[in-house]
Amino acid sequence: MRRGAGVYRDRQLRLRDRAAAQRPARRLPPGRPARARHDRGHPVEGALQGLDIEELNTRAGYRRGRGYVHPAEAADEILDDALQPFLDDLQRRAGLGTGSAAVELAAGILLGLYNCRHGNSETLLEYSPDYAAERASDVVSDCAKLGIELPAVELLDRMPEWSALLH
């Protein structure tokens, strides 16, 4: 990468996010049914469920200088690595003052985690069954710290099993 290219890319992202925040919301034509937010799922769900279970072989077991790493601990680390870019983007959007974009992303992250709450067999989520609920709790507290007001009513409708988390 050229020197200064990262600064240029950061500037581009800031300008894009500001422009998106200033654009009026798109309206659906009359007679067209409104789709619920994130009906097609969120990339968080795909990122967490699409991880290869074989990666556990590279992180679990005895590791020189670290000792024994339990497969559940290794799965948490791998899942955290996949989730981190979304959390970084959330902090970036909140820092730029793009409130609606940050709210949309936070809701998407929570819905993606909610869809991963049952660890499917042959996924890393099977090794860490409480991962989604624990990280969702972290996301809700991060949103409170960042001043992101979550759409609680909509999320309660979409995530009934996590109602205690949203109150």
Task: Provide an overview of this structure.
It is built from eight helices and two strands, in the order αααββααααα. The protein is mainly α and 167 residues long. The protein has one domain (45-166). α2 packs parallel to α5, α4 runs antiparallel to α5 and α5 (99-115) packs antiparallel against α6 (131-146). It is globular, with a radius of gyration of 18 Å. The N and C termini lie far apart (45 Å).
Keywords:
two-stranded antiparallel sheet, 167 residues
Counting structural domains, the number is 1
Structural class: mainly alpha
Percentage of β-strand residues = under 5%
Counted beta strands: 2
Order of helices and strands: HHHEEHHHHH
Structure annotation, total helices: 8
The largest sheet, given as strand count, sense and whether it forms a barrel, is:
2 strands, antiparallel
Backbone shape:
globular
Radius of gyration: 18 Å
Give the helix level as a range of percent. Answer: 55-70%
* Strand order of the biggest β-sheet: 1-2
Whole-Å distance between the termini?
Answer: 45 Å
Low-confidence stretches: 25-40
Global mean pLDDT = 82
